[in-house]
Amino acid sequence: LELLTSNLKTMTIESTEHKESTSPPLLIASVRQRFLSLCQKQADWDSYDKPTEETEFYRVCNDGLDFVELIMNCEKEFQIKIDETGKDEYSFDTVKDFIDWASLNVA
After folding, report:
1. Per-residue pLDDT tens over the stretch 17-58
2. Do residues 95 and 39 lie in contact, with contact meaning Cβ atoms separated by under 8 Å?
């Protein structure tokens, strides 16, 4: 499992945008970091107490409006459409759970 996790972190993600542009392929670690950065901006916490992947998700999105705003910011950042059907701010226990789910839309 550790080997698989290690390999996944270094795999590249080929997207249709990448094939049409000259930008380098996205690394999964880079995608995860960008999603985490968006969660940190959403939470608007001071720099000493930024959310991590282990942070409880409700501390980042504590209502439906926060959740919709986070999804919209992620879509804008990655130029993708995220299907949040059946998902809301209560669907995720931690920021990591959200990043895992949202990252599937970038691949």
Report:
1. 444 444 455 577 888 888 888 888 887 766 557 888 998 998
2. yes
Helix (H) or strand (E) holding 12: strand 12-13
What is the C-alpha radius of gyration for the chain, rounded to an integer number of angstroms? 14
DSSP 30-52: HHHHHHHHHHHHHHT--TTS---
Does the CA dihedral 86-88-94-100 come out positive or negative? positive
* Statement: residue 5 has pLDDT above 50: no
Amino acid at position 23, single letter:
S
Q: How far apart are alpha carbons 13 and 50 in whole angstroms?
A: 27
